[in-house]
Design a protein that fits this description.
alpha+beta
């Protein structure tokens, strides 16, 4: 893949931007914010010894040129030899090299073409993940888009293997800024330090801690310096809403915006960004998901001029990021692609006993926060009492692995057993009761007891279990190129979160948060 960082393409960007629960109502959520929350732009940033410029820049108007354009991801070292065609919007197609995580349907949406119009010298995989670096020939239909420069690798957005050796506490302490002395009272962890907040949000949401620290420093100077106003102290990311006061609530808001951009780009549902003043812009179709996440986030946080300045590759956010943590693309070369060719979900069973009646109470919805990848499914045991009640039913391990987290309603099973949930396949089980919950360090086999469904850990209106998958730190959409398959039951998303179906051999189970008849599901011995 070629990172597009030529001065001409850089200038083009500025031109573009000018122009149930059974028998009860069930809701399951862990996060605090939604995409519909009002957006506020920051009025100032804190002081920082990094000395990086944050001034607004004026876009320069230029005319399009015939410079070669090849779109795709960043190159390995050395970069592969590829043709560099001259793009004529009227006659010449785009040569696009598939990026890890791409599907034909998502690429077609980004380029605003029908999937059938995309061709390749080799067979195109119509469903599922396409192999990285495959050449696609796509009709050229878009002109006015955001910058095509790849800024942030995908592995620096998600809590991927690249963060496995990163010590948050040591970094924050050495930086010595306001964050190193900050603490906040959180209901589940009581007095929690700034570094612990970064750690918690990073691991729970699977967002790279380096990114959280860089955003915090860029907008408030908290990491190396001190906030320069009461607003920057109480609302370090500039999200001015009384209920979102404090570092934890501010970062949760940021995580939601980053996740919307990242996973929306993955599935093709996000193709443009909207600014607070109703200006919108089409995203350049060859961007990678990590860069789109940044573009989306800063569009929600800043006005247009500050957005342009933040995304300047030479003087904006990424200059600070690389100054804090070194070259992001060099690290990415050691861990990407996040989805290697041939990756498949391991065999998984429904997480309850054979012959026991449960209900499918939640179709594909947010894995942790409200927004982002619709990676999670909900199941509730049959019972004659609604609401959050103690249940004797057991949640079973869908496959073998090592328990790497257990607490606050969570059991995280690392399937490859290396003890690091940032690598390989992992399964999250949420809302497991404290009573009888399996402990950290336990090795489990498929069908072993994990705990009882409950309402613990996050927001829930009824006893159930919430289950989601990750691969190399990225939440895997339940209805996507690697569909959730439990005992042969395949998940399909509905028009809205929590809706959808499970299908197997011509049978269909329909999700219902009320646990109605059509949501009943029975695990059988022979799928």
């Amino acid at each position: 893949m070629v990172r597009k960082n030529s001065p001409i393409l850089h200038k083009l960007a500025w031109l573009v931007m000018l122009l149930a629960l059974v028998s009860s109502n069930l809701a399951c959520a862990v996060g605090m914010l939604t995409a519909s929350d009002p957006i506020f732009s920051t009025s100032g940033r804190g002081s920082s010894p990094t000395g990086l410029p944050f001034a607004t820049i004026t876009p320069e108007l230029i005319f399009p040129t015939d410079q070669p354009i090849v779109v795709g991801g960043p190159p390995p070292t050395p970069a592969p030899t590829r043709p560099a065609p001259t793009i004529d919007p009227n006659i010449t197609p785009v040569l696009y090299y598939v990026q890890s995580g791409d599907t034909l349907q998502a690429v077609a949406k980004r380029f605003d073409v029908d999937p059938s119009a995309i061709t390749s010298p080799v067979d195109i995989k119509a469903e599922g993940l396409m192999p990285a670096n495959q050449l696609l020939i796509i009709p050229h239909g878009l002109s006015n888009t955001t910058s095509a420069v790849h800024l942030l690798p995908d592995s620096e957005l998600v809590n991927s293997p690249s963060a496995s050796d990163f010590d948050i506490q040591a970094f924050v302490s050495q930086a010595g800024g306001h964050l190193s002395r900050y603490s906040e009272w959180l209901g589940s962890t009581e007095w929690t330090s700034g570094a612990q907040i970064i750690q918690r949000i990073s691991i729970e949401n699977s967002i790279n801690p380096r990114l959280l620290l860089a955003i915090l420093e860029f907008q408030s100077g908290w990491v190396y310096g001190e906030p320069n106003s009461l607003v920057a102290t109480d609302y370090p990311l500039g999200y001015l809403k009384a209920s979102r006061k404090g570092l934890y609530a501010q970062l949760i808001w940021a995580v939601n915006q980053l996740s919307i951009g990242y996973y929306g780009w993955r599935d093709g549902s996000i193709t443009q960004i909207q600014f607070p003043d109703d200006v919108s812009a089409r995203l350049a179709p060859g961007l990678n998901a990590g860069t789109v996440a940044l573009q989306y986030y800063f569009a929600r946080a800043f006005n247009l001029n500050d957005w342009v300045a933040a995304l300047d590759p030479d003087h904006g956010f990424m200059q600070l990021y690389n100054k804090m943590f070194g070259d992001a693309w060099q690290r990415a070369q050691t861990v990407e692609p996040l989805f290697p060719v041939g990756v498949e979900q391991p065999p998984l069973i429904l997480p309850f006993f054979i012959g026991q009646l449960w209900s499918y109470t939640g179709g594909p919805h947010g894995a942790w926060e409200h927004d982002g990848s619709r990676a999670a499914l909900d199941f509730s045991p049959a019972r004659d009492v609604s609401g959050c009640v103690e249940s004797p039913a057991w949640v079973l391990a869908s496959t073998a692995g090592l328990v790497v987290r257990s607490g606050n309603g969570v059991v995280m099973v690392d399937i490859d057993g290396d003890g690091d949930e940032r690598t390989g396949w992992d399964i999250l089980y949420l809302h497991l009761a404290t009573k009888d919950r399996i402990e950290v360090g336990a090795s489990v086999q498929m069908g072993d007891l994990l705990g009882h469904p409950s309402c613990e850990g996050g927001v829930a209106t009824g006893t159930h279990v919430h289950i989601a998958r990750k691969y190399n730190g990225e939440w895997v959409a339940a209805d996507g190129p690697l569909p959730f398959n439990l005992d042969g039951w395949i998940a399909h998303a509905g028009t809205d979160p929590y809706l959808g179906t499970l299908t197997r051999n011509g049978d269909t189970v329909t999700a219902s948060m009320y646990g109605s008849f059509e949501s009943r599901i029975l695990r059988t011995r022979n799928p």
